[in-house]
Write a structure and sequence with these properties.
Blueprint (H helix, E strand, L loop, with lengths): L2 E10 L2 E7 L3 E6 L5 H15 L3 H7 L10 H4 L2 E10 L2 E12 L3 E13 L7 E4 L9 H6 L3 H11 L1 E4 L14 E2 L13 H10 L4 H13 L3 E5 L9 E2 L2 E4 L5 E2 L6 H14 L8 E5 L7 H14 L4 E6 L2 H4 L7 E7 L2 E6 L5 H7 L2 H6 L9
Parallel strand pairs: 3-15, 3-16, 8-14, 14-15
Antiparallel strand pairs: 1-2, 1-4, 4-5, 5-6, 6-7, 9-11, 10-12, 12-13, 16-17
Length: 370
């Protein structure tokens, strides 16, 4: 597993300039509008970029002016550098996007580099050129370049998940193709197909762990009823059974909160070798009962033993389940987002009487509206 050790980001939305060290478990806290979701959005942009949908992402998010710090007149380009710790050194990805005609962004620079452990010279660097609209990592990997192949794998395994949409038209409530089961989608739109694969695998311990954990937070839940249902056996729906009934229920009969917690449990309890290298989740606490929050927090900590996790939260109850060293405080200073590791020198006395969440509520650790 690769670990994202450091991210340098400049000129993206509210982030004027950020140089942030990341650890296996990272919890962002801050007031509304501080900029937590903008860091999450940056990783979402990477997801779309690796799918060769960067221009679509830009168009769907208000064009370039909405993604550049105070617009292109103030910030004509954005820059980012990602440093990944790998088995025998450090992989470095750098990109610089500049504002172009049509209010969009093009690559002014895109480079890959590898710095071997113990090497004192310049890193081995591969330039992907300039002036292109979509990343050339995939193209370079197809040509057989070893460094590009490594980066394609690393960046494809940094994934953002959002389970906000639980409306009746949400994809997770609809039928999906049973064969769409390579990895869990960002909105869990293929959750039924994933659960069906895990359930029918020769070793189904992950599926059983998921079901047992759902029962902890939803005692009425018995099990899923997962079978391809159309005549050609190509589509599957997230059906389930109630412990007090012989009837089979559909996904539209799950509450929003229950459906979200099912998605989170499936994400965090999937087989260890299927976990993304980096899991990013924005405000997982939405609609969850306090007991469910503690269960999800424990799953986050367990998942961080096998993958890197970055989450943002507004919940002091959720925050209580973590340690000070996990916390990144996000604040707005001079109209720019500032990210900083929580300093613990002054916290010992406070934490003798208050929990971490209570200290946050009292504005002791920063990240508040004041």
């Amino acid at each position: 597993m690769s670990i994202l050790k450091r991210i340098h980001l400049k000129g993206f939305r509210s982030i004027k300039e950020m140089d942030l060290e990341l650890r296996p478990l990272n919890v962002l806290i801050g007031a509304n509008g501080a900029g937590k979701s903008n860091l999450v959005a940056y990783f979402k942009m990477l997801n779309e970029m690796m799918g060769r949908r960067l221009q679509q992402f830009i168009a769907n998010t208000g064009r370039a002016q909405a993604n550049l710090h105070f617009g292109p007149k103030c910030t004509p380009q954005m820059e980012s550098t990602l440093e990944f710790e790998v088995k025998n050194g450090v992989d470095i990805y750098t990109m610089r996007l500049f504002h172009a005609a049509g209010d969009t962004l093009f690559f002014a620079e895109e480079t890959l580099a590898f710095l071997s452990d113990g090497w004192v010279g310049k890193p081995m660097t591969v330039s992907l050129g300039a002036g292109h609209q979509e990343t050339r990592i995939g193209d370079k990997a197809q040509e057989g370049d070893t460094v590009a192949k490594v980066f394609r794998h690393i960046l494809n395994h940094c994934r953002v998940f959002h389970f906000y949409d639980t409306s009746l038209t949400a994809r997770v409530r609809q039928s999906c193709f049973v064969g769409d089961n390579r990895f869990l989608m960002s909105d869990a739109g293929n959750l039924a197909a994933m659960l069906y694969r895990w359930k029918t695998a020769p070793e189904d311990s992950a599926y059983q762990r998921i079901v047992r954990t759902i029962r902890q937070v939803a005692p009425f839940f018995d099990d899923f009823e997962l079978e391809p249902e159309d005549p050609r056996k190509t589509d599957i729906l997230l059906k389930w059974r109630h412990r007090e009934s012989d009837s089979v229920f559909g996904p539209h009969q799950l509450s929003d909160g229950t459906l979200r917690v099912i998605c989170l449990i499936a994400l965090l309890l999937q087989p260890d070798d299927e976990l993304p290298d980096l899991i990013v989740v924005d405000e997982p606490e939405l609609g969850l009962h306090p007991y469910a929050l503690h269960v999800i927090a424990s799953l986050v900590q367990a998942a961080a033993q096998h993958a890197q996790v970055l989450i943002s939260t507004q919940s002091s109850t959720f925050l209580d389940s973590f340690e000070p060293e996990h916390i990144i405080v996000v604040e707005r200073q001079n109209e720019a987002s500032v990210f900083a590791r929580l300093g613990t020198d002054h916290l010992e006395t406070w934490l003798e009487e208050y929990s971490l969440g209570e200290a946050w509520e009292k504005n002791v650790i920063g990240g508040g509206p004041i």
